[in-house]
Amino acid sequence: MSIIQIKGGGGTTAVDRTSFVGTRIPPEIQGMIKHLAKLDKVTFTKILKVVVGAILGSEISPQSLKSIIKDNITEEVFAFLYCGIDKLVKQAIKIPSTSLKQEYFIQDLQELQIPAEFHEDLVSCVFGSVRSQLDQHLVSARPRLPSLDHLDWRVDVTISTGVLNRVLVRGVTMDMTLSDGSIKSFEMTVSKFQDLRFQVASVLSEMEKLEKRSILKIKD
Q1: I need a labelling partner for 81 at 20 to 30 A (CA). Which of 136, 154, 187, 198 fits?
Q2: β-strands 3-7, 13-17: how paired?
Q3: Where in the numbering of this chain does the COMM domain appear (predicted)?
C-alpha cells in the first residue's frame, strides 16, 4: 500500500493512497463480493477459519466443509467465497502490519463493498494474535535460493602441461558450501581473485556506512 501526501495551494494536505488489494481488484475478490450479501456471519467466520488454517498449512477436512456447505450454500458458491477470502487475507498480510493501518484497512473493506458485519473478523485476522503465525509461515514457505554457508579457497600452481614442461601458473580454486548442502567449485585467476576481494571489501564498507544511518539498520 502506498500513501502519497499532496499539498494544495491553501496549505491543505490530501492523502492519495492505494488499496491493500492493489490498483485493480483481483478477480477472486470480485467473484466473492456478490455472494457476501446472502451470507450470514457464522458461516463467514467458519470459512475464514478454514482459510487461515490452510494458509498455516493445515489440511482441510471433509467434516469442516460439510458443516459449511448447507442448502443455502452450494459448492460453487463456497468455491467463490473461499477463493475470495483467501485472496483478500493474503493481499492484506503481504503488507507489514506497521504499514497497513487498521482504519485504512476498514476503509478499503467498505470500498470493496464487504458487509460491515464481517469487518470485525477480518480485522482480528489481519491485526490480531494470529497475524504473527501467518507472517512466520509465509516467511518459512517463501521460495528462495540457497544461501552461502561456508567458503574455502586454495591456491594451485600448474607446474607443467602436456605441451609445456614448465608452466608455473597460479590459480585459485573456490569451494562454496550452500545452505542446501551442495558444494559448488570453480577456478579463477589470481587477478580475478584479487578483484573479488576488492569488490567484497567495497560492499562491506558500504554496508557499514548504511548501518550508521538512523533510518536504516541492517539485521542478520
Answers
A1: 136
A2: antiparallel
A3: 147-211
Rounded to 5°, the CA angle 111-136-181 comes to 135
- Nearest Cα to Cα of residue 121 among 9, 43, 200: 43
Q: What is the DSSP letter of 197?
A: H
The amino acid sitting at 48 is L
* Ranges of the chain whose pLDDT falls below 70: 1-16, 70-72, 160-167, 214-220
Q: What Å distances lie between residue 103 and 90, 126, 127, 130, 168, CA to CA? A: 18, 12, 11, 19, 71
Q: Is the dihedral of CA 176, 177, 178, 183 positive or negative?
A: positive
Residue 119 φ then ψ, to 5°? -65, -40
Asked whether 90 and 20 are in contact (CB, 8 A), the reply is no
The 10s digit of each residue's pLDDT in 144-166 is 888 889 989 888 877 766 665 66
Any residues with CB less than 8 A from the CB of 188 and at least 6 apart, and which? 171, 172, 174, 196
Q: What gap in Å lies between CA 210 and CA 214, rounded to an integer?
A: 9
Cβ neighbourhood burial of 122 (10 Å; 0-12, 13-18, 19+): buried
Q: Provide the residue count of the chain.
A: 220
Provide the β-strand partners of residue 156. Answer: 171
Q: How far apart are CA 84 and CA 59, in angstroms?
A: 19
pLDDT at residue number 161: 61
Residue 163: its pLDDT value, please? 62
Residues 87/20, Cβ–Cβ less than 8 Å: no
Distance CA 68, CA 131 (A): 24
